[in-house]
Write a structure and sequence with these properties.
The protein has about 170 residues and is α/β, with parallel strands linked by helices. It has one domain: Uracil-DNA glycosylase-like domain (Uracil-DNA Glycosylase, subunit E). Strand 6, helix 5 and strand 7 form a beta-alpha-beta unit. About 35% of the residues are buried. The N terminus is likely disordered.
Amino acid sequence: MKIAYSGNDMTETRITHPFGPLYDGNSRVLILGSFPSVASREEGFFYGHPQNRFWKVIARLTGEEVPRSIPEKRQLILKHNLALWDVIACCSVTGSSDASIRDVRANDLRVILDHCAIERVFCNGRTAWLLYEKHILPVTGREAVCLPSTSPANAKWTLEKLTEAWGAVCAE
């Protein structure tokens, strides 16, 4: 899918999620974002914005180095029995603004849930959690925990506070 967006363009665009979920048969914890940022859509992978603290938090929680490449990021997630995806399959959005998201069609989480024994579901930020509650909880019946967003827009949360709050993700 070609993305009609340039970094300074603030035009609302209808976008279909440009990449699939990351999981394998050993995944036990599912982490869901809302929808990929412009940087993530351009990179073709989760949490691609250089200031997003997701990869730093996961590295700290697992005692691993912060991954730099997509293969390293994939390996980190799978090595620790995690799965990644987003709540939204398709939406109208302006840039990377979660506040602008509308006309949502949710992802079908059965792609993951039918193929691995997910024990816990976490949402990266309030927007992801609210969308999960509205669109996915009624279908799956699985509760999700709302974690503070790792987005650079959530500047009031330091890396240390985020790591502490996210501790349950890697807890046994």
